[in-house]
Amino acid sequence: MLVSAKDMLVKAKAGKYAVGQFNINNLEWTKAALLTAQECNSPIILGVSEGAGKYMAGFKTVASMVKAMIEELKITVPVALHLDHGTYDGCYKCIEAGFSSIMFDGSHYPIDENVAKTKELVEVCAGKGMSLEAEVGSIGGEEDGVIGKGECADPTECKQIADLGVTMLAAGIGNIHGKYPENWEGLSFETLDAIQKLTGDMPLVLHGGTGIPEDMIKKAISLGVAKINVNTECQLSFAAATRKYIEEGKDLSGKGFDPRKLLNPGFEAIKATIKEKMELFGSVGKA
Ligand code: 13P
Fold it and tell me: pTM higher than 0.90 for the full model?
């Protein structure tokens, strides 16, 4: 069932668990994510970066694939198809393509411009029954060409954006896309606590879910995080399983070169990573 992310996140925030956003890259990724969500009876958000959308031939291809897969795989759990770190233009392309949710990442604009553009998109999304994620304070590291310094968001700016009526709010709290460096200082729970106090019921979003220790994930959820994004970790599991298959020479024996066989260990590895995260985030059985 393709839905906006609103209800699933309101329920998650109230129930003190988080819904995972898992970024997709191709058909195998999408199928792995949808089947795992169904098996875990968990809501799921499929994240699509602008780079991944382009790679998959465009947002319309992605939306058609996801909708058809939900039907043909008989997926009954709530699924949101969400643009990740969208530009202003990218948001409109996804609205047109039939996504059910978008993120407008205006964190690199001066706050007044972020507010103005977010406000406009709140109205457009409301008219279409879509959910909208906004961002304050950039997330560190690099994801598909989106580079952030990794700053802590200003809680009063978070309140300003939350008050516009967005569905969920991503706020930088020292989190980083990709692997965390050895000398990472950890999440700033002080910032998160201050943001949650000012934004009340607003579901907060934790980007850079790869490599955050379990205790920090649990603490973040207890402080109002209701959506956690995971991308790199599925890529690493897929790559490691594919590498093992090839290094063991399995592609050279019999029909092991058949793409359906060659990609299967990576597919299963993505499924295992998503299941592990759903269990950690507490969304299993919450569909
Ligand atoms: P990771 O790649 O660090 O898991 O981050 C994913 C993310 O935040 C997508 O927006």
Answer: yes
